[in-house]
Amino acid sequence: MAKMDINKNKPLEFGLYSLGDHIINPLDGKRISQEQRIKEIIELAKYAEQADFDVFAVGESHQEFFTTQAHTVVLGAIAQATNKIKVSSSSSIVSTTDPVRLYEDFATIDLISGGRAEIIGGRASRVGLFELLGYDVRDYEELYEEKFELLLELNKSNNITWDGKYRAALNNIEILPQPIDDQLPIWRAVGGPPASAIKAGRQGVPMNITTLGGPAASFKYSIDIYRETAREHGFDTSKETLPVATSSLLFAADTTQEALAGMYPHLNVGMSFIRGQGYPKGQFAQAPDYREALMVGSANEIIEKILYQHELYDHQRFMGQIDFGGVPYEKLMKVVDIMGAKVIPEVTKHLGGK
Amino acid sequence: MNVLVLAASNVGTKTKTAMSYIHKTLEEKHSEHDITFIDFIDKKMEFADGRNYLEWTGDTLEVTTAVMNADVIYIGFPIFQASIPAVLKNLFDLLPVNALLDKTVGIVSTAGSEKHFLIAEMTLKPILNYMKAHVVQSTVFITEKAFSRGEIVEDDIIVRLENLTEQTLTIAKAHEQIRIEEESKYGF
Questions:
Q1: Measured between alpha carbons, how far is A90 from A22 in angstroms, rounded to an integer?
Q2: Is B52 in Cβ contact with A126 (below 8 Å)?
Q3: Single GO molecular-function term (chain A) (predicted)?
Q4: Which CATH class is domain A13-350?
Q5: Residue A285 in contact with partner chain B when CB distance is under 8 A
């Protein structure tokens, strides 16, 4: 298993992730250009780095209202623009990518960044990209499983011999370039329900689970069964080998009310654009409660939520998505400022980190 | 409000006749609303496969979008094999979880036999409730003898359809009021 490089000084790593959505800002009805959006994501990575975030991740989504389809290219730019933050994906769609190509891309990002690259491999939540990239959505399940297996194999040695159904066989072929330490941290992206968590456990790979909203306790079962399944299959479930990361929408402000008012229009309009259904206001109003997974609130409320979740999950990384729904850059900076000045140091202190 | 009248059958005339009556009543008495009438006979719907409804094209996208945009939906359906017809179940399967949240639904069922009186209660209402609709409790059940050559000929049924039309709108307005009142408390 690849070294996971979880920050030893921090009981909980902090990360930001973007799906690269490109939606109007509901506050002024305008949409920035694709060019500006991509440049702002790169700027955000730099800004997150100076605020002591450990990870910055960019995902690919091949549908309307998104702009980081070529996420590895954006991650290459981030690798060059930053110095210490880990450069990750959120996620890379393994099902519709050649794992060899994916590995080459991330090994290259690892070389550019000086060993900071990692892959979070997912299996897509939309069907459009299967058609776009020439795959049959009926193979949805198997495409992902086979290709993810190959990706893990590629990480084990420099030369690969492999045979499968969805890609040409590989006969003792050397994969180049190789990452700095010959291996990359590879996580499996998992939705909330337990079925995928069980698969991650069976495979013995680190898990990044989405905890977008609803009662935080409802995700505990998936995390518990992930570790339990991994143990049953003979894997070492220590934090160093099989860390767990959670991903949630995040918005921090000076007060609860400011946080609610600051996030709601973006979340509601963003959801309408990409899912065709807004976010119910009544449900959102309950979000500051510490037991609710959606990370919205004042700094103290966010701290309380993260600590509560840490008690439930004993996870090693928290990933926040702050730019969903056309959030203007100044607002993003403010959230990063609050996280960097208060939330990250307080949580780290509470959990006994340095 | 956006009002959608759905004749959810791909065959026959009874459901269409009943729903056309509701549509006509709405046009005459409530033209202040945006009223849409969809007859499944005219639509070619794809089978649900789990994708988000926005990823469909053609009639499937048009019909699902009309449902998602509606505040009030009148659903009329015939009874096949003691249940709702496949085209109607398929429509629900095409939609997201909680798709009917904040929507009010009025129900009309048509049947060849009195035996099917409770089908709306037993098969449709559980689905609508699961999908978070506000369901108007009284439904209209119509059998063969109320129809003649594309018209409704029983006064009892006409009165019940008119009542359902009004009651559904009233309940929708009441829920809208409650929602506005609740949301005004949040201050965002």
A1: 16
A2: yes
A3: oxidoreductase activity, acting on paired donors, with incorporation or reduction of molecular oxygen
A4: alpha beta
A5: yes
